[in-house]
């Protein structure tokens, strides 16, 4: 006869891993909510766990420190944006214009342009003490995205026979425009709607690369 201990069915490892990942993501989501409402300085592990409905002990188990939690939040947001444009660019049949459009769409996707998430980016931009965390976590993504944009622009310039266009300067201008649109969406949500900002970005590239782009209707 088997003992009670021997007969106990152990939950599948996948179930435990999924539960652990869910608890971890719950803490990340709670941190996003806290930073958006209280800022970086007002976000503590106690406040995060209160929003998440869990214990500080669990937060310490997953992240050890508030700084590690902040790094996890930035990693989550960066991966979310990277996945949007990289997954589309896996299609080898895409044209150069489609590839640049994938990057533009990733910047103005509904999942990215959530006002709480936008608030996170600007919280890290504006806090002197948090910029090192930003550079550590997101610096590679920024470089990767800039390099990809420059490579696409070089191809488009060659294809279209454009003259007087510097791909690096154009890529940097696009990055500045994205950030400016995000800031306006955060500060003036009634005046700067996500799809309107996407349309303005498309108008910009249409003016520079008219043989590749025509103003298009809004789409996700």
Secondary structure layout:
Elements: H1 4-7, H2 13-38, H3 45-52, H4 56-63, H5 66-89, H6 96-107, H7 115-126, H8 131-160, H9 167-187, H10 194-208
Using the CA coordinates, give the radius of gyration. Answer: 22 Å
Overall 3D form? elongated
Number of helices: 10
**Overall CATH class of the largest domain:** Mainly Alpha
N-to-C SSE string, H for helix and E for strand: HHHHHHHHHH
Distance between the termini: 61 Å
Strand content: under 5%
What is the CATH superfamily label of the largest domain? Tetracycline Repressor, domain 2
Structure characterization notes:
- The protein has 220 residues and is mostly helical.
- It folds into two domains: 64 residues, Homeodomain-like (Arc Repressor Mutant, subunit A), CATH 1.10.10.60; 154 residues, Tetracycline Repressor, domain 2 (Orthogonal Bundle), CATH 1.10.357.10.
- It is built from ten helices and no strands.
- Helix 5 runs antiparallel to helix 6 and helix 7 crosses helix 9.
- The N terminus is likely disordered.
Task: Offer a quick outline of the entry.
The chain folds into two domains: 1-64, Arc Repressor Mutant, subunit A, CATH 1.10.10.60; 67-220, Tetracycline Repressor, domain 2 (Orthogonal Bundle), CATH 1.10.357.
Supply database-style keywords.
Tetracycline Repressor, domain 2; 220 residues; 2 domains; mainly alpha; Arc Repressor Mutant, subunit A; 10 helices
């Amino acid at each position: 006869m088997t003992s009670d201990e021997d007969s106990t069915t152990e939950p599948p490892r996948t179930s435990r891993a999924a539960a652990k990942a869910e608890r971890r993501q719950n803490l990340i989501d709670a941190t996003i909510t806290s930073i958006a409402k209280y800022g970086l300085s007002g976000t503590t592990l106690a406040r995060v766990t209160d929003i998440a409905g869990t214990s500080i002990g669990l937060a310490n188990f997953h992240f050890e420190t508030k700084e590690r939690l902040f790094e996890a939040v930035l990693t989550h947001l960066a991966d979310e944006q990277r996945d949007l444009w990289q997954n589309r660019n896996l299609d080898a049949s895409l044209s150069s214009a489609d590839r640049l459009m994938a990057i533009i769409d990733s910047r103005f996707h509904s999942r990215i342009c959530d006002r709480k998430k936008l608030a996170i980016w600007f919280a890290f931009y504006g806090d002197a003490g948090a910029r090192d965390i930003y550079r550590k976590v997101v610096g590679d993504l920024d470089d990767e995205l800039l390099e990809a944009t420059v490579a696409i622009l070089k191809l488009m310039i060659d294809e279209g026979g454009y003259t007087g266009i510097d791909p690096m300067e154009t890529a940097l201008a696009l990055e500045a425009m994205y950030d400016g649109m995000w800031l306006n969406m955060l500060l003036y949500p009634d005046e700067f709607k996500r799809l309107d900002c996407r349309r303005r970005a498309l108008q910009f590239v249409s003016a520079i690369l008219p043989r590749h782009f025509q103003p298009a209707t809004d789409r996700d």
